[in-house]
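[step 3/7] inverse_fold.run input=structure_tokens len=84
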């Protein structure tokens, strides 16, 4: 499965979410981080919404910045199971 994180440099919420995602090793996914400042269409779509997380082609609800790694892992597991 592929996770896409729409982010931008200097976004502390984005950086925190990325760090947590990179610490999840029990789930099989490829993480792609997309800098919204590199494309006008991404910037227009997500400038007020980041961080935005997609699983394959489906937008996921934004996890709370207070979510622990295990909570984030559990949320992702639920969405990944729903895609099977």
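[step 3/7] decode complete -> sequence:
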């Amino acid at each position: 499965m592929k996770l896409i994180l729409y982010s931008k440099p200097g976004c502390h919420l984005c950086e925190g979410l990325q760090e947590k995602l990179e610490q999840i090793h029990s789930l099989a996914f490829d993480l792609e981080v997309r800098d919204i400042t590199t494309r006008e269409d991404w910037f227009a779509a997500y400038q007020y919404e980041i961080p935005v997380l997609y699983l394959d082609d489906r937008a996921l609800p934004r996890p709370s910045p207070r979510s622990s790694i295990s909570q984030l892992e559990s949320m992702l597991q639920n969405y990944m199971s729903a895609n099977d």
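[step 4/7] annotate
The two ends are 10 Å apart (CA to CA).
The longest strand covers residues 2-7.
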